[in-house]
Design a protein that fits this description.
Layout: E1 11-15, H1 20-31, E2 35-40, H2 43-55, E3 59-64, H3 73-80, E4 89-92, H4 107-135, E5 138-143, H5 156-176, E6 181-188, H6 197-200, H7 203-211, H8 225-232, E7 243-246
Parallel strand pairs: 1-2, 1-4, 2-3, 4-5, 5-6, 6-7
Length: 253
C-alpha cells in the first residue's frame, strides 16, 4: 500500500506565515497541493509570502491579524475560510522570544509570550475543530522547540510556553483524534529565522551549535518541508499526540 502525501483540495491556515519557519511550512504545504492562508500582523511580509507561493504555482491568500489578541481568534477562524473554504490543516507557527533576563521579565512580556505560544494555538484550534469534524479530516501542527526539553538563557517565558505546547498537543490529540483530527508538534533545532538572528549573527556561536548536532550542521528552511507535509497528510493518520524533533540530532547527543 502506497502512503498518500497529497494535499490536493485541502485548505491550510498557517499562523506566523509571513517569515521564517511559518513561511517555509506554508510554502511546503502549497507545493504539496494545499491552498494556503497565511496569517500575521505585517501585510507586506504576508504579501511577499503569497507571491512566493504563487510564483511556484501554488494558491495562497493573506490574512492580516493580531494573533496575540484573544478576542480576535474566532474572527480569524471565520476569515480564514473565506478565500478557499473550510480549513482542515492548521499550523500554529506564530511566536515571539523577547530574550529577557529572568529578573527583567515583566507581566506584559510574560502574558504576550504565553498567549502566542499557548493561548492562541488552543483557542484558534478549538474554533476550527467543528469544521474539521464536519469534513472528517483535520491536522493540527503546533511548533514546539528544543526548549520544550531544556532551558536556554534569557528565555524563561518562551521555554515555559514551549514546554506547555507539548502537553497541549497531547491534550488536543486525546480530545479530537477520534473525530479524525490529529494533533502533533514539530520541535525545530536551530534554523536561520528572525527569532534566532542573535545566534546566527555570531558565526562562532552558530558553528558551536552545529557541532552539537548528530549531522554536523544547523537546519535550513528546506529541512522543515518534509515533516510538515507528512504530519498534514493522510499518511500520518495513525500519528497523533507526538512531538517530532527536527533538530539534526541535537537532542540525541
Amino acid at each position: 500500500m502506497r502512503p498518500s502525501f497529497e494535499l490536493d483540495g485541502r485548505v491550510a491556515l498557517v499562523t506566523g506565515g509571513s517569515s521564517g519557519l511559518g513561511r517555509a511550512m506554508a510554502e511546503a504545504l502549497a507545493a504539496a497541493g494545499a491552498r494556503v492562508v497565511v496569517a500575521a500582523r505585517r501585510r507586506e511580509a504576508l504579501e511577499a509570502s503569497v507571491a512566493a507561493i504563487e510564483a511556484e504555482g501554488g494558491q495562497a491568500a493573506a490574512l492580516v491579524a493580531d494573533l496575540a489578541d484573544p478576542a480576535a481568534l474566532e474572527d480569524v477562524a471565520q476569515r480564514a475560510a473565506e478565500p478557499f473554504g473550510p480549513v482542515t490543516i492548521l499550523v500554529n507557527a506564530a511566536g515571539v522570544n523577547l530574550r529577557q533576563p529572568i529578573e527583567e521579565v515583566d507581566l506584559a512580556s510574560w502574558q504576550l509570550t504565553l498567549q502566542l505560544h499557548l493561548g492562541t494555538p488552543f483557542f484558534l484550534s478549538r474554533a476550527l475543530v467543528p469544521g474539521m469534524r464536519e469534513a472528517g479530516y483535520g491536522r493540527i501542527i503546533n511548533l514546539a522547540s528544543l526548549q520544550s526539553r531544556r532551558a536556554f538563557p534569557d528565555s524563561a517565558p518562551y521555554g515555559a510556553g514551549k514546554g506547555g505546547i507539548v502537553q497541549l498537543t497531547r491534550a488536543m490529540a486525546e480530545a479530537w483524534s477520534r473525530h479524525g483530527i490529529n494533533a502533533n508538534a514539530i520541535a525545530p533545532g536551530f534554523f536561520p529565522t528572525e527569532l534566532t538572528a542573535p545566534v546566527f549573527e555570531d558565526p562562532a556561536s552558530a558553528e558551536a551549535l552545529a557541532a552539537r548536532t548528530a549531522v554536523g550542521r544547523n537546519g535550513t528552511l528546506a529541512d522543515i518541508a518534509g515533516p510538515t507535509v507528512f504530519l498534514a497528510s493522510p499518511a500520518a493518520g495513525y500519528v497523533t499526540g507526538q512531538t517530532l524533533y527536527v533538530d539534526g540530532g541535537f537532542t540525541a547527543k
